[in-house]
Inverse folding.
């Protein structure tokens, strides 16, 4: 069955290519959305206090130069999907004043971007 | 000569795709609650829908029957208005965990900056927002006074994203057909890259509004507008895959007409029904996720979608374009299924005759 499918796959690409149509394998239903083939990756992480090692809640994690950001949860964790790039700079900022302690900001440049990335960050107290 | 060869190869391609019937695009009608009550709604959704939203775990259980999703497999959240659900992001993340992509069709009313970022964070990769005219005609069709301004704001927000594969769709009708050039200008001003136009078929609430359907001459006008717009590279304008448009085919879209309902496109509807596009007559449901294995149903059923010879009836029986049209878009078969609801090519032929006589 698998072999049959792979043969058919090859045939579809050949026939499709020969019919000179640019978007044979990419389509959208009448009332649907475009398809998404952009390479992206999941970045997850945890933010802890340098002095105590305890997780920090409500740290703003943003992507420098991009529109995406979020706040760490109770466990100090965060996760988001980002467009794949050669490098991504994450910025960690304490924006809730002293509510969960008071921490200095930090940038982290990620260059080794495989499909999934886990970032451990420690922030020093101010 | 080249176009004949091309068309013949395309028919072979379509046959091969049908035999392969690889599921790569799945609609999830996750809610039928809606914050609008549009005149043309094919799903008859409302603020007081009788259906409860489908629990995420029920949908995910059905999704888990797909053991090896094809690369780029996309779940399209549709409704109703998906943004009325507060767990869209959670559902999206679950879909991504399974190696699939997800996207959403929305009216834009609840598409705020905060929700936009939150949806992107959850891995949304594509989005479609409906804009059905300039202020007056959009608000008329959407049946709500302030919907236009909110929708335009949402469009500007989505278009500003470098992550999203975003497009705007417009239901072309008698009230907005004269506004198309201005809408195009508006969208270009908002940096929208893609615009898809479609017409309204007389199903759902649209049955009671004759103004919603284009006359034959207006339909030709629409084809000419799209063909002319595609000559410039400023914005990617195309006609939707709703129907076969004869000689206009190469002029109004990137690829020849091919209704992929039940071939690559499936759906899980609000009551658990397993079908193809959500606007297809409910009598074509092939099973139900609450009683059947979803993927087994996809693999072993769907015969009416994959062998459409039954559509050779009524005006299609003797039509010389049948081998390219194949009974038109599947959603054009309703009721007793003895006659195609709309023949786009017939509208064009009639419209061109009227144009020639003027």
């Amino acid at each position: 069955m698998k072999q049959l499918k792979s043969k058919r796959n090859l045939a579809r690409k050949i026939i499709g290519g020969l019919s000179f149509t640019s978007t044979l394998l990419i389509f959208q239903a009448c009332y649907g959305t475009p398809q998404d083939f952009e390479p992206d990756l999941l970045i997850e992480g945890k933010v802890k206090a340098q002095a105590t090692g305890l997780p920090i809640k409500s740290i703003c994690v943003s992507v420098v130069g991009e529109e995406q950001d979020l706040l760490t949860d109770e466990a100090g964790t965060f996760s988001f999907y980002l467009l794949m790039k050669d490098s991504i700079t994450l910025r960690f900022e304490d924006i809730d004043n002293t509510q969960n302690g008071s921490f200095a900001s930090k940038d982290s440049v990620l260059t080794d971007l495989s499909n999934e990335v886990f970032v451990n960050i420690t922030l020093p107290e101010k | 000569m080249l176009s004949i060869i091309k068309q013949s190869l395309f028919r072979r391609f379509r046959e091969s795709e049908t035999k392969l019937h690889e599921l790569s695009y799945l609609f999830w009608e996750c809610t039928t609650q809606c914050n609008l009550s549009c005149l043309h709604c094919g799903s008859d959704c409302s603020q007081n829908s009788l259906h409860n939203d489908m629990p995420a775990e029920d949908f995910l259980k059905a999704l888990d029957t797909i053991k090896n999703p094809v690369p780029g497999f996309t779940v399209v959240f549709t409704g109703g208005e998906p943004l009325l659900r507060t767990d869209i992001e959670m559902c999206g993340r679950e879909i991504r965990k399974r190696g699939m992509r997800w996207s959403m069709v929305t009216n834009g009313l609840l598409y705020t900056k905060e929700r936009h970022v939150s949806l992107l964070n959850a891995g949304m990769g594509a989005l479609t927002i409906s804009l059905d005219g300039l202020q007056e005609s959009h608000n008329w069709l959407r049946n709500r006074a302030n919907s236009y301004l909110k929708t335009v704001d949402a469009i500007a927000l989505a278009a500003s994203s470098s992550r999203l594969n975003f497009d705007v769709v417009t239901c072309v009708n008698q009230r907005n057909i004269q506004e198309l050039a201005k809408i195009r200008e508006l969208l270009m001003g908002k940096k929208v890259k893609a615009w898809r136009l479609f017409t309204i078929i007389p199903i759902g609430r649209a049955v009671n509004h004759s103004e919603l359907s284009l006359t034959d001459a207006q339909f030709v006008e629409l084809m000419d507008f799209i063909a002319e717009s595609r000559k410039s590279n400023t914005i990617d304008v195309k006609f939707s895959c709703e129907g076969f448009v004869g000689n206009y085919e190469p002029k109004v879209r990137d690829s020849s007409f091919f209704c992929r309902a039940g071939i690559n496109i499936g759906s899980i509807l609000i009551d658990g029904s397993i079908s193809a596009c959500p606007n297809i007559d409910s009598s074509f449901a092939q099973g139900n996720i609450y009683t059947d294995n979803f993927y087994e149903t996809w693999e072993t059923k769907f015969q009416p979608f994959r062998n459409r010879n039954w559509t050779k009836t009524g005006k299609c029986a003797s039509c010389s374009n049948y081998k390219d049209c194949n009974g038109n878009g599947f959603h054009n078969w309703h009721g007793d299924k003895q006659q195609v609801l709309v023949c786009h090519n017939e509208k064009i032929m009639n419209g061109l005759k009227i144009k020639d006589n003027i």
Remarks:
- The radius of gyration of chain A is 22 Å.
- Residues 2-18 of chain A form the longest helix (17 residues).
- Chain A touches chain B through 38 residues (CB under 8 Å).
- Residues 32 and 105 of chain A are 42 Å apart (CA to CA).
